[in-house]
Amino acid sequence: MKSPNAVGERGFMSKLRRALTKRVWVQLGSRKKLKQIELEPSNRLVYGMYFAFIALICLTILEATYILVLRSFSNEIFAAMSLVIGTILGTFFGQKA
């Protein structure tokens, strides 16, 4: 089931939207028949996660360049990477709960 927001999306954004979609069971009618419905994430959440992944990729490239050029490890860049990873994981677990 495609949402009106997801029309024409391809690639990573559609996979991200599908991963953040929550599926719940509801009881319908007088016979209490179960039906599974999908709750689509907001565009704000999808774009925020998209930019978080871009930030993680950029920080990884920056850390690799830092190690290659200066021959040392940057704790600050690694801390920023840990923060972004924690944000991404927190969003996925919070959205699925």
What does this protein structure show overall?
It is a single chain. The protein has 97 residues and is of the alpha+beta class. The chain has one domain (4-96). It is built from three helices and two strands. It has helices at residues 12-20, 43-70, 75-96; strands at residues 22-28, 33-39. A two-stranded antiparallel sheet has the order 1-2. A hairpin with a 4-residue loop joins strand 1 (22-28) and strand 2. Helix 1 crosses helix 2 (43-70) and helix 2 (43-70) runs antiparallel to helix 3. It is elongated and about 70 Å long. 6% of the residues are buried.
Give a nutshell description of this structure:
The chain has 97 residues and is α+β, with helices and mostly antiparallel strands.
Helix content: 55-70%
Give Rg in angstroms: 19 Å
Strand content: 5-15%
Could you report the average pLDDT, rounded to the nearest whole number?
Answer: 90
Give the low-pLDDT segments: none
Number of strands: 2
Order of helices and strands: HEEHH
Terminal Cα span: 21 Å
Shape: elongated
Question: Number of folding domains?
Answer: 1
Number of helices: 3
Largest sheet: 2 strands, antiparallel
Strand order of the largest sheet: 1-2
